[in-house]
Fold these 4 entries.
Entry 1:
Amino acid sequence: MYHRLSLIAQALAVGLAAIGIALAPGYLEIFTLMQVTLFAAMAVLSLSLAFIWGYGGILSFGQTAFFGLGGYTYAIAAINFQDSTYGILLAIFIPGLFAAILGYFVFYGRISDVYLGVITLTVTLILFNVINSTSGDEYHIGTAMLGGFNGIPAVPTFNMPFDPASPLSPEASWWTTGSMLLIVYLGLRLLLASPFGRVVVAVRENEVRASLLGYDPRMIRLITFIIGGAVAGLAGALYVNWGAFVGPTIFSLSLSAEIIIWITIGGLGTLLGPVLGCFLIQYIVASIGSQQTFNSNLVLGAVLIIFVLLLPKGLVPTIRDLALWLLAAKPGTGRSVKAELNAASGNPHPVGAP
Amino acid sequence: MDIYLILLLDVINGMASLFLLSLGLAIIFGMMKIINLAHGEFIMLGAYATVISTNAGVNIWIAMLLIAPLFVGLVGLLIERCLIRFLYGRLVDSMLATWGLSLLIIGIVTTIFGNTIQGVPTPLGGFSIGNYRSSYYTLFLLAMALVMIAIVYGVMRHTRLGLIARATMQNPAMANTLGINPARVYMGTFAAGAAVTGLAGGLLAPVSGITPVMGGAYVAKAFITVVGGGAAMLSGTLSASTLFGSLNQIGAYFTTPVYGEVIVFTAAIILIRLLPQGISGRFLKGNL
């Protein structure tokens, strides 16, 4: 009974989100629409880390490596082919391939927690340094100049598939980005509900037990990591489409940090939380702007510390627990709802547990 | 011939600076398994303390050898009491919180001093080898690295304080039953690690451009040095900084400074892949 209700509610929410994405251009000014497009592209990036960290237990400090690689791949392909279709596909494929190589190195070497963080961090720095030093005419891929610190300006934005002559309007660009966000969200949701998704969570919970049950944790982690890399690459393409520009700061540490902040604030181990956290934090940062007196670093840092100390679960799980607690406070019905929910959602952290 | 002498000096300089930069992080990580991602900002605070007190008329040696470590040590003490002590044993949370702390410190310093580059003149002057010139300050950094090795070794091996620290590191519960309060040892260690980091910041102030975001350039290098070195705070950091420091300088000499860094980072990845416990976890077991 509860399970069916929750399914209906989720389907309704998805439907509402789709309608919202479709109708947004009619109600928002063009500037706001562009901002929301950026937020949605970043939310896809947020989802990529939410998946591998929240469900796979892989804390990557360098998710921007895949994001940046996707952005650069898209830019270079779009300039060379003058058609964004292949660019988008390559921007998913190349970071996925890179994640496969790096992941093979890392997971088959059974490198874990801190060391994994160090490796992903250094890879990001390597990419930053290398791209940064590619100014000069000799650095080009096809007709695309890499441009070093200045980046690649005037990247062709998305066009209708296989029709380079008709680029997307800002509204269509928003529809693409927004629906990509929805598709990635739903795709990850379905993946997590599938047997494979259950195994991913099982490996996170107890690697030894999962391997004794016959699964290869290294393989599972590797596949999780590749999916995360591919999604981050897609986010990179969406980001470059938004700005028509890509530069080496796309690999920066501060962006890596920001993704982790979005997820910590929204709620680790959920998919909705990181998306909300991403929108919320980006909105705050955008409204602070770059004024001196009230520095965005200061606010971000303070928010992160407060959340780690006082609200370590993040917004969405806290609100969910609160709602359930209120439900459970009603006499009679509460206990069974809670029990059913735990059974239905396969929640690794039983509701009501401390 | 002269160029090789200069290269040798550069290599020594690279090793000594990397060691000084990483030692504070290694003390904190080795003792408490806390990765302090605000490490770069501690360096930045040390450098700022040096610049500001020098500009206020304090002798530069006093500023960098005394004021910088004292100031950052106090900041470390404060941070340990307000933040870190809630996070022992929660590795990922401590990384997140110290990352937040690093942003917070950058924000505060930017608000106070603005986003401008500050600096102090390099003391001591230079000398020439053939056609090339170098600075005595390079040799001074090497001397300071050696002094720090001696101090840490002496304190940890030959004093009661060091004994207590090592006992707590090995087995906090046992140390506690013997009447030592681990919380106080952790507090002291964190402050000491911060002070050492502040000293590194002070020492590097004359040879680097000082901005609120300068820490970012150091934290990754210190991070890979400590993890590459492994759990032994002194021998691990020493061996890793020797390896990475010399690779960096030699790589930079034969290619460009950028590729020097790339070589170091690549070497770090390969090292961690081959020796997940770090150099000291494999070759220098049981050392300090």
Entry 2:
Amino acid sequence: MASMKFLVVDDSITIRRIITNTLKTIGYSEVVEAANGKEALDKLAAVAIDFIITDWNMPEMNGLDFTKEVRNASATAELPILMITTRGTESDVIEALQAKVNSYIVKPFTPQELKDKIDEIVKVTSVNAA
Amino acid sequence: METLNAESTMSTTTPTGAVESVVIALHKVIDLLDRIKGAIEESSNKIPKAAIQLSTVTQATEMATVEILNVLDMMSHKIETVEEAVARMSYGSVNGQADLATSVQGTLAEVRQDTMNITMALQVQDITAQKIAAANHLIESVRLELMHELSYFEGTELRDRLIVPTVTLPTAGAVVAFDKNASYLKSTETQERIDDVVRQFREQGRSAQDPS
């Protein structure tokens, strides 16, 4: 699965760079970046993406609305989505799950947490696809 | 909006009319004072909240800085160890050079992990940015409220004296999304609690699909 192409969506340049560097460290070198949901939808239309990592609080279009748009489009409806956000209340997590994110990490995160969540999502989606 | 204008409220011709005008003017002043009181009360509530947001920025940056300094101390020590090992190897006075090379490789792997830990600590930038955005939002709402009250003095000399030159903020016009509760303090329990919520949500989803 190391050839997977990731779409990293976050309005913070620092966080995008941290996630991209972490992905490279754990073996995923193909990464496309976007600064908000709207930009991410444009990237999704232009590039074949295998896995989405998105923030929640972003200008233009937030991560929750972006997730709903992705799920509503037949071409992207099944893409794995991992949300990484500062929002950590139970109601936040449930709202994100209702929007159909596959998993959820609260910032600040560790490389191990990111790796574990990606592995878990890939495993589940592979089983479901089989 | 109705404004406080001495000229319009006092322009009367009869004594009875003058008294009425004074009463009307007094009502307007009382109304204005009530509104100013409300604006001050609201500002008094918001300013401490902004101050708290900013103090958490200090805490978060300090924690991250200490984390980074600790990692740098460890890295410095490891680099010294590697330098000593390389020096011994270069003099050719080492028995078991293969073991030493393995040890050096291990130390370098640890240094790589340390650099990763520094990278992760820099997530503080995103968290403090959201805290500062939240504080900015509170300060801006206080400014708008006060400006709104000042508009009551439209066309008066007092307003001209009270209005300060406008300062254009670097973030003016920019849409900023933030989480006012963002925190750099994350324990393993936080993620475990979230994983539990995710697990329960999935189990509920499964049992809803398969009631048997």
Entry 3:
Amino acid sequence: MSILAINGLSLRIGQTEILHDVNLSMQHGEIVAITGESGSGKSMTALSVMGLLPRGAVAQGQILLDGVDILQTAEPDLCQMRGNAMGMVFQEPMTALNPVQTIGAQVAETILIHEKTTKVEAHQRAAAMLERVGLKVAPTRYPHELSGGQRQRVVIAMAIALRPKLLIADEPTTALDVTTQARILDLLQDLVREFDMGLLLITHDLAVVADVADHIVVMQKGRVVEAAPTAQLLANMQHPYTRALFEASGHAVQLPELGGVGQLLSVRNVVRDYPARRKALLGPRPMVRALDDVSFQMDHGERVGLVGESGCGKSTLTRAILGLEEVQGGDIRLDGEPVFTHHRPNLAVRRRMQVVFQDPYSSFNPRHRVDRLITEPFHLLDDPPQGKARAAAIAKALGDVGLSPGDAGKYIHEFSGGQRQRIAIARALIIEPELIIFDEAVSALDVSVRAQVLDLIADLCRKRPLAYLFISHDLSVVRTVTDRVMVMQAGKIVEQGDTEQVFTNPQHPYTQTLIAAAPKLPELSHAVETV
Amino acid sequence: MIRYALGRLTSLIISLFVASLVIFAVIEVIPGDPAAFMLGVNARPDTIAALRAEMGLDQSVVTRYFDWVTGLLRGDFGQSWTYKTPVADLIADRIWVSLPLAIYALILSTLIAFPAGIYAASRRGGPGDITIMGATQLGVAIPNFWFAMILVLIFAINLRWFSAGGFPGWGDPLQAIKALTLPAIALALPQAAILARVMRSSLLDMLGEDFIRTARAKGLTRRQALWRHAVRNALIPVLTIIGLQFSFLLAGGIIIEQVFFLPGLGRLIFQSISARDLIVVESVVMLLVFTVIVVNFAVDLAYAAVDPRLRART
């Protein structure tokens, strides 16, 4: 008998249909991945199984967990099943734990609410479970003392403490670094084997799906468009959406030949220290070195990638280049001009650089219209365009990013995530900067939208020589949109070189680890041939 | 934790020092002669000279400040000009009315606000929530002296359960508490209304957090998740308000003290200002500032007890 069977599940909230006739089944020890873009209904399917739907949601159909229909089960019985027969791991490990309780207590709670046992024994079992998930810190620690990967291990320990038959993991590694992601995925696969449980993995990352799933379910707009065993699905995609999804994930852009000449940006021996917590009460404040003797150059029109894990100093470097923070040592110059003069940002240099940030939802003031939003950089100019010239500049910037001049009068909430990121790029382009910094600029986007934005960036490069520094944790994206790449670890650039060369023949052990840890998309045409 | 506490203690000492400077400056260094000010326009020059000598006004500002502060540290608050008794004694008499009253009101306010706020949050949008929120709206809007008069009307004049005012002293603790009950209720109701609203909204914020969803996925019921995970996290803003309210209750009970004819600090300061007795005003204000700062220190320590993240900070 299958451990989980979803039969004809439909879900509506008010008048909106969220899920339509979703079917899925899973055996013991099997990993089933649900994939699709945001809004496809992946997470809602998971929450339906847990019986944790938002208020006002009406579900129809059948969700059988070991023969028990979740949709027909009363709330008190569902509470008995949650954490016991089924466990769930969520996306955001930074907020998934209660900040005021120790991690041991939070794991022990799962045991204590379901089993009649003493506190001491529950804590012992919790400690054992934390050890099993590979956590090497004491159970008496608080969540804020742990890294994202460690916290995710705690959440996993909580979910599997009672060895549930079914574990649901909703984007469990999306917020993590690649090397951490690889370790967490290994752990999940181990646990599935050891406990013979079913794992329902929700993820948008097709490389992860292809890597770990036994069975793939592709969802689009609340419907299952395709479901098949992994090898079979990869070899023979039936639905055009599945194919489009895989193609967009591995989307490669064609960058024009390098056109510019001469040096644009020079970063020499830059050092940036931050004060850390005192070790002794009145002892000296220890310093944390965020940038350690960083040196590199960029030419006019050159496209450079910067990769590294969180905390490696990528953001500090961005802030230093933009002149947002002064560095303690070294020298940053754009076209020979220092970005910082007399302890103040140098405006003459600042206006020649722009930045595009990650989150298209929070980087705009919701009360301003698009024309005002994208003309923000004008304040850097001594003589900003007025009247007709301003309108023309707005129209051109919007046109450059594939929007229409008519969008200038709209508010930001009227746009989708991808359109917002286009507006962010328009904002960066409007004063025609020589250097743009893309700081995880496509990381929050769905694969198909991401592909479009990458195409847009390549297009812009074709229209004019555009130099950019592309910062991302996503190696496959960096590989396609850059000429040269730098790898950063603990504040140092450990390797830099021609992008293709670094990716095919990494020299530094850290680069090798990073590339090995990144899950890889199967080659589509290649997969067809092998089966 | 110790480092955090020491950090807060340092800030407490600095605040006290700055506050003492400000109070001293405002009252003693204001233009004109404090002695002449205290005695009024018709005072005779030799009376003024006598007062000047008594207040030490013939000495330098630095010496006077130093004498005042060291006096305060020894518990010597000076001699009241109008009452002709040591200020310390005046304060001692009244603090035993004001402090218990403030604590009494605060306990009442917390006892009302916590259950009301938690109940409203757990039944968000339901009839219970709407009723409680309506009641707190009234509680915030109606001034406490009006409550006080209504309470007197009902419980003292009509039902005769309590006396309408006055304070019998702590000779019979039961009678003393009884005398403070109506004033404490009058003070507590508006505070409870504010506190309940803060508790509710803070809890609702917490209920939307990811870790509540995690708790529910573990198998906790809605109510268990609320009690075990949301309440403690919701306490931080609530503690802030409690700290502010205590300071207000201690010093701001003046109207209620008038209504119930209680010999408290509020009335002392009011009478001293009317009588232009700067020596009393200065010392009582300093004492109130001291209390406020110490209460804030206690609130800071309470934060750390609730939230482990604060313990790690310097």
Entry 4:
Amino acid sequence: MSATTAIVGAAESDLGVTNASILTLQSQAITRALADAGLSLSDVDGLATSGVSRFSATQVADYLGIQPSWCDSTFAGGSAYEMYIARASQAIASGQASTIVISFASNQRSARSRSLGGVVETHTPEAQFESPYGPLFPLSYYAMAAQRYMHEYGATRADLAQVAVLAREWALLNPKAFRYDAGPLTVDEVLAAPMMSSPLTTADCCLVTDGGGAVVVTSLERARDLAKPPVQILGYGESTTNTSMSQVPLLPTGAVASGKAAFSRAGLSPSDVDVVALYDSFTITVLLSLEALGFCGPGEAASLVASDRVRPGGDFPLNTSGGGLSYCHPGQYGVLLLVEAVRQLRGEAGARQVSNAEVALAHGTGGILSTHATVLLGVDR
Amino acid sequence: MSEHVLPIPDDVTTPWWEATKEGKLLLQTCLECQHVQHYPRAVCTQCAGSQLHWVESAGHGVIDSFTVVYRAPSPAFTAPYVIARVRLSEGPTMLTRIVGADESELACDLPVSLSWESLSDGHQLPVFQLTHE
């Protein structure tokens, strides 16, 4: 596929502990991303967002004083923002909108709004057949996926811990990272952290922080006239597999289908990717996604993550921002995967900049391995 | 287990919950294609048929995977306890608990058998224990 759309602006809101409202953080992310593109609110005729209220896109449009001709609030957890890239590209290609903002923000750390059991909606099958057992949501599902993974491939808790160790290594190069000043993390520290839902400890879990981000999408043709070099949208794919904890096999995940679709649409293969941003809700998520997306074979992700290839200076830089584990995790981290991929492709990533990055992959995972969405981005050639 | 989050049965699931009072774990079988499924639904996920009838599970399965919860999600639960996915011999996989076993005894693919825990509303919750041969 030859690209017809591009990301032209990308930005974070304030991150960490902000004591700001969700809509303040949304406003920061959106106006900063527009400024990055050299655009203003009056240019925006499309909006995709979720996690604000029942009517998320409508709410944000009202708050910003805009009346978009296209909007989307598909609720798919952390993968929604990669899914919005697909929908935004299609809306632009069809002429329904020309300048689309994709945004998310949360103040979950300041507001202490996170609950270990998740939100139980009493009319759902899960409320009757799963919630009565008391699983942590989403943690216990990922824990069962990790247990199964260890059983099938002989992996260990130390293999999982390597993912958190790697994330910290990158975060030490990112001044915006929540753990920027925390120093290196060791495998032993991860193993010694309090057990939450075995085999996962608190250190196998992503951060709980405030934060948000936004990206601006427009046609590639128009993108070439804007402030920054365009980042082409080369391909995308998604797969929706489950809401309950019992109905589909734990392995492999829906990332197999989303990755295949994205690579096929882009006419690329995993070996073409220069920099990778995978949703790291939990350490296990990264191992599962690396294998499902075809970056290594089944059971091989642990040795890949322990290698120098994925580290600063390596040829397969993985989660260069420090990830949800050590950089920022505001509940739905997917939009920040896109922000980091854009920065790497533009050469704006400072001390953590990857050299000669031309193709980036961002992969979002939502819910309990429920939704999987892959986006391939590339420099404008 | 202490007090539970109590289920609210609906038009499809009321017979299933009623059967738990007699210690029967029901599964749905499709009259058109014989597919067996759980949780109960208004539709067969294999053939889209709507003629579903109840059969009683033999109560045998294997642990697909498990996790020990060390921090309870609400005061309704007392940690630690074992959450598991059990694959029933009839085919479906269900979320449940493994009771009466230490974490060190647990492993994927071990055989388990049905047991019951009482809920405060008179229903029972199907749980499993390791099958000791």
